[in-house]
Specification:
The protein folds into two domains: 2-73, no CATH class; 87-161, no CATH class. A hairpin with a 2-residue loop joins strand 8 (107-108) and strand 9. A four-stranded parallel sheet has the order 1-2-4-6, with helices on one face. The chain has a three-stranded parallel sheet with strand order 3-5-7, with no helix packed on it. By secondary structure, it is of the alpha/beta class. Helix 3 (114-122) packs across helix 4. Helices cover 28% and strands 14% of the residues. It has helices spanning 7-13, 87-93, 114-122, 128-138, 150-161; strands at 2-4, 24-26, 31-32, 44-46, 51-53, 65-66, 71-73, 107-108, 111-112.
């Protein structure tokens, strides 16, 4: 698998369909700007601490493989999200108060992100330092959404809670 360290290397691999032309790994701690043409993370593995800015054309988080500490800024708020949660995950998902989703912080007063709500609902301690690992364990099918914007996450939760 090819290792990418710069935005220009990544941009060179983005095809007309907005996807990378071959499977790649983003190097640890790299920051990527000017990725307006990227529409999907399919085929991309992100090492620890990768940061992405200006992902205004991104339409899906499907297929993402991501290490701890990755950040996404400038996302399209109309991005469509999907997940296929297990029965155990659905027990948590059904209890998440949609109006109290705040994806910008693990815990923020009475609002939380998906991983934060997983901690709260499961009775685990509310620790920012363990939120992502607890969230990945409790909501594995939603872990690719932990850095998505509020509105698409809320829409997905409404859809899942209606099942």
């Amino acid at each position: 698998m090819k290792i990418i360290t710069t935005g220009s290397e990544l941009r060179a691999l983005i095809g007309a369909d907005g996807k990378v032309s071959e499977p790649i790994t983003m190097a640890e701690g790299c920051e990527f700007f000017g990725l307006e043409s990227l529409t999907s993370f399919e085929g991309i593995t992100m090492a620890k601490g990768c940061k992405f800015f200006g992902l205004t054309s991104l339409t899906s988080f499907d297929g993402i493989t991501m290490a701890k500490g990755c950040k996404f800024l400038g996302l399209n708020s109309s991005i469509k999200l999907s997940a296929t949660p297990s029965e155990e995950e659905m027990k948590i998902i059904k209890q998440i108060p949609i109006e109290k989703i705040n994806m910008s912080s693990w815990h923020c007063g009475t609002a939380h992100c998906l991983a934060g709500w997983a901690q709260v609902i499961s009775g685990r301690p509310m620790r920012d330092s363990t939120a992502i690992s607890d969230g990945r364990e409790l909501l594995p099918s939603l872990s690719h959404l932990f850095f998505a914007p509020d509105e698409p996450v809320k829409k997905l939760l409404m859809k899942l809670q209606a099942i």
